[in-house]
Design goal:
Layout: H1 8-26, E1 34-40, E2 56-66, E3 69-75, H2 77-114
Antiparallel strand pairs: 1-2, 2-3
Helix pairs in contact: 1-2
The structure holds zinc ion (ZN).
Residues 41-42, 44, 47, 49, 56 line the site of zinc ion.
Length: 169
């Protein structure tokens, strides 16, 4: 009846937006890039790693872009745990910001449609072309050497000698 009453759809958009803001406030430190857990085999035909279930690793590899080039770094397990948390936080941050943008756009369209005016925001972004790896997913047990470092040789563990503490035969 009263024209000033908010449509239910807008109330829900507002509630979702507030919920997203609250989630945003909880997010800790962030980091770009993705973390890959890798297992490798060496060239020694007598090594245990010839069994696919006993390959060397895990090696933790951080991949991120520097000036358009993907760079990979091997991390210690301790650091990998830290990066894992920061990267998960960044994904939450990105997803929440995207959700807030989407909700804002819907709200803008809703509000202006009520005034019989079009919404003049930019078009929703097209889905970006997928690169070799979906950056939103950290695959486990990646076998492909150098999968995401095209400008670099495949990554190999340094000094690949079996540590005396394990599986010396
Ligand atoms: Zn080996």
């Amino acid at each position: 009846m009263t024209e000033r009453r908010q449509p239910a759809g807008l109330e829900r958009l507002r509630a979702d937006y507030e919920a997203a803001k609250a989630r945003l406030a909880e997010i800790g430190f962030t980091c770009e890039g993705s973390l890959i857990e890798r297992y490798t085999s060496c060239k020694n035909p007598n090594c245990r790693c010839q069994d696919p279930d006993q390959r060397h690793g895990p090696y933790w590899q951080l991949s991120c872009k520097h000036a358009g080039t993907t760079v990979s770094r091997v991390l210690s397990a301790e650091d990998a745990a830290r990066y894992q948390e920061w990267i998960a936080n960044r994904r939450r941050l990105d997803a929440t910001l995207k959700e807030m943008n989407d909700l804002s756009r819907q709200a803008g369209e809703y509000i202006l449609a009520g005034q019989r005016r079009p919404f003049h925001g930019p078009e929703p972004p097209a889905q970006p072309a997928r690169t070799t790896q979906n950056p939103g997913i950290s695959p486990r047990h990646v076998d492909i050497p150098g999968f995401c470092a095209p400008s670099r040789p495949p990554l190999r563990p340094k000094n690949h000698v079996l540590p005396g503490t394990s599986y010396s035969s």
